[in-house]
Amino acid sequence: MKNIILLAIGFLVLQFSEPSLVSQAVAACSDDPQQGVNWEGCRKRNLMLSGVDLRDANLQKTNFTSTDMRDSEFDNADFRKAAVHR
């Protein structure tokens, strides 16, 4: 019974929480490269991503070491703490 009550309280807290906190997307590392993709913390090494649309993408802490991203679009993409080498 105690677990049911705690679960109900959790749902109420989520329902009345700040919308931006509730709607944050979880990184989906297997998603195809596309506008707005969330690859936060993903490993995207040694890939051919030339000419892709990554506008508005969340690329924080993503490892792009030796990835080809020539001619791609990155307007408003978030590269904070991303590894972009070679």
Distance between the termini: 56 Å
Number of helices: 2
Structural class: mainly alpha
The sequence of SSEs as H and E is HH
The Rg value, from CA coordinates, equals 17 Å
Please report which band the strand proportion falls in: under 5%, 5-15%, 15-25%, 25-35%, 35-45% or over 45%. under 5%
- Bulk shape: elongated
Mean pLDDT: 83
Proportion of residues in helical segments: 10-25%
The main pleated sheet reads as: none
Note poorly predicted spans: 18-23
Number of strands: 0
What does this structure look like?
This protein is mostly helical. 21% of the residues lie in helices and 0% in strands. It is built from 2 helices and no strands. The chain has helices at residues 2-15, 19-22. The longest helix is centred in the N-terminal third of the chain and has 14 residues, at 2-15. The protein starts with a helix and ends in a 64-residue tail after the last helix. Mean pLDDT is 83; it is low at 18-23.
Layout of helices and strands:
Layout lengths: L1 H14 L3 H4 L64
